[in-house]
Amino acid sequence: MSAPAGQSETIVILDFGSQYAQLIARRVRDSGVYSVLAHPDVTAGELRRLNPKGLIFTGGPASVYEQDAPKCRDELLDMGIPILGICYGMQIACRILGVDVRSTTSREFGRASMKILQPNGLLKNVPKDTTVWMSHGDQIQALNDDFEPLAATPTCPIAAVRHKKRPFYGVQFHPEVTHTPHGNEVFDNFLYEICGCSGLWKMGSFIESVVQDVQDKVGDEERVICGLSGGVDSSVLAAMLHKALGERLTCIFVDNGLLRMNEVGLVEQTFRGHFKIGLVTVHAEKDFLDALRGITDPQDKRRVIGHTFIEKFKEAAAGIPNAHYLAQGTLYPDVIESGHSLAGQAANIKLHHNVGGLPAELGFELIEPLRDLFKDEVRRAGELLGLPEKIVWRHPFPGPGLAVRCLGEVTRARLDILRQADVILMDEIAANNLYRKTAQTFAVLLPIRSVGVMGDGRTYENVVAIRSVDSSDFMTADWSRIPYDVLAKISNRIINEVRGVNRIVYDISSKPPATIEWE
User: Fold this and answer.
1) 263 is catalytic
2) Is 75 a known active-site residue?
3) Domain 411-506 is found in CATH 3.30.300.10
4) How does pLDDT run across 383-417, given as a tens digit for each residue?
5) CB within 8 A of 449, min separation 6: which ones?
6) Is 87 marked active-site?
7) Reported pTM
8) Which CATH number fits domain 10-194: 2.30.42.10, 3.40.50.880, 3.40.1080.10, 3.10.20.310?
9) Which of 174, 242, 352, 395 is catalytic?
């Protein structure tokens, strides 16, 4: 893996299992510096290929003295690259450098008052008496002569440290969370004062770099095919490629019958009508529903949909002359969740049909300009490219479509029920000014029926679940606290207006341990 085009500054973040690893990466990017996640066992050689300006060691749930605790290679501390250790990251580095770390009776969880002992360097511009967020049961017992304490709390005398001979800094607190009000100053000091970064990570310059790279890569007589879904990722991708290639871009939109209501019309109006982008629409609802008949396992659904998509896409692509490249809207979280990143062999949480590319027999070379971006960065790019707000801020939609929101067997009748429920849900979310306040909201048709009463009669009908989450990067998410009166109206409308539904439930699971989608 290498830094994106035009980005000569990179911070590598070694993830020791922190729930905040993605948040740290985004904090660094928000400060204007590109960041990537890496497995703690990454070698010095692998890091040198990235030419990082600095390293950050994250926190983690383990204790550094446990036998199976995650460790980094000692050689990383000899590279001469500035390092910031956070919580566990501070402890593991200090332990490698000869400092004792033990369990303490004075555990700190939550807000703590901290006094700055050295108001310069890492802690420059941080108030002498400040509040920080702590989450640890272990701490450094005593420093050796190579270290200097930088801050302390009433129960943690070594809340921040600096090595006198190496460019290593450590903080026991968590500067990445909003509960540490001056955490941004800590990151800025590390990035700019210590690592010497200059803030090259800007979305405008990123777009310009991608446009130039695509123009350099694609020959004057060659065409690029873009798989368009109507979601924000593929839409931003199409707009970016159109800026680079103009008429040499052709988008293929496969109507698989698993789309939201009026999806085809919206896509055609936006891209063929507004942007004047060459668009081929493939109507293949019957093919997909026939292939899905009798299938209920989520992974099997994804495989069948992926296979059928490839076949229909291949047929459409065959009719496009001089098509040499295939563009996909793969994002950084997709790459991480599929285990294809520097962060190591992550558990394959779910199949991402757009990671790794379509089969080689299609004969295309892959272009993935967005694979280094988080979702919020993609939206920023969309705004800069002039995409309509209703596209840029559209809630994410899974590649397999409503098939993974229609639990159990996928049929046209069940999809129709789900679409109607989803439209009502989104109407009320928008009407109550909650659309931009929630990250992803959707309906799920469950594979069960429940007993109900309508009028004087007994019913035995479908159950619809409502899922709404708050998230900035979609790697973690919490369920949205939608007001009860709004939920009541949504429930009442769906039950009254959608025939075949007599019960609504609300999903209050966070990610982790749940995923955002149900399948």
Assistant:
1) no
2) no
3) yes
4) 999 888 888 888 988 889 999 999 999 999 999 99
5) 460, 461, 462, 463
6) yes
7) 0.75
8) 3.40.50.880
9) 174
